[in-house]
Model the fold of this input.
Amino acid sequence: MAKINSNYTKLQGSYLFSTIAKKVNEYTQNNPGKKVIRLGIGDVTRPLPGTVIAALHKAVGEMGDEETFRGYAPDLGYEFLRKAICENDYRSRGCDIEPDEIFVSDGAKSDSGNIQEIFALDNRIAVCDPVYPVYVDSNVMAGRTGDYDSDLGAYRDVIYMPCMGENGFVPRIPEEIPDIIYLCYPNNPTGAVISLDELQKWVDFANEKGSVIIYDAAYEAYISTEGIPHSIYECKGAKTCAIELHSFSKNAGFTGLRLGYTVIPKELERQGVSLHSLWARRHGTKYNGAPYIVQRAGEAVYSPEGKREIRELVGYYMKNAAYILNGLKKAGYEVSGGVDAPYIWLKVPDNMSSWDFFDHLLADANVVGTPGSGFGAHGEGYFRLTAFGSYDNTVEAVDRITSM
Ligand SMILES: Cc1ncc(COP(=O)(O)O)c(C=O)c1O
Done:
């Protein structure tokens, strides 16, 4: 008889977004005349930039022509895209990354979930709390954690690193030494960023202890503050301890198109084995590449016109972020994020729980956000709003919240 992977039974149901959807549906059914504004989910709403659309059309045309038709993509991704990534995301920032250290994929979610496969099961992982849930759940599925402790709101055998207002939502280096450290900056859900000096401390720690940092830079394009690192490879020595994940979802609106990449420097070795070679083997065996037309669309993002359009797109969302941040601050809320990230993280007032505040906001302002407790035990008492709505809806939502 086939046996299941019983690690899956340790997983907690993905209640967060389904509970939100259920509550919102219930509310709209009972209050049909009310206009509910959703600032909860992390999906983009603006259409794809014109340069991307033109590149897609051109590539589709090529696929219909015998001379230019393409079949399977190269394992690591097309050279034209890897070169554009290398030049624009790394060399222009002084990071010494080669095109063949870049693995093109269908997005950062799959890569952040799959990367754990190249590590042994007895590695101890460390994650921020609150956290993007994929890092934890993928390790639970693999069997790298213990059971869920519902009193603690945490899995056993995972090092949770609290990220709270007191530490600027950047964790302290834990006392217990982790083997694998997940960091994500700009951060989802807190909207916090990490300084170069602070990130350097993590890199130095990882190099000293032999840990590996998995650095999720999915929101890098939202950084506007001078001096904040866009890549972990801006730190000295990062090539011997860090893997970096990127996405085209939030900078260029590819959430439905699907494109991302992972960087593994050739120098990164553990136990004398190159992690690059392990991931190359995994990629070659289990993945047949992002579609040619999508990789051409990705290349277009790096054209001069593409870059201008991307700046405009990010600027649109960041105008929303500024409106939320300033509006809520003026109204006396304790808020953070929203400057170098599309997420605003607010402290729930009057010692309410995150879910109580969710219900209050839905009923009294008809606005939907995300309860912080859905991202981990240390998210309790916080609430996430996203800047991915339309400007008009964002303004209306903030005005409603502040006049509650
Ligand atoms: C931190 C973080 N990493 C990765 C992703 C997923 O990115 P992609 O759309 O490239 O899979 C998200 C999406 O919300 C995210 O918040």
In short: The chain has a mean pLDDT of 96. The chain is about 35% helix and 15% strand. The two ends are 59 Å apart (CA to CA).
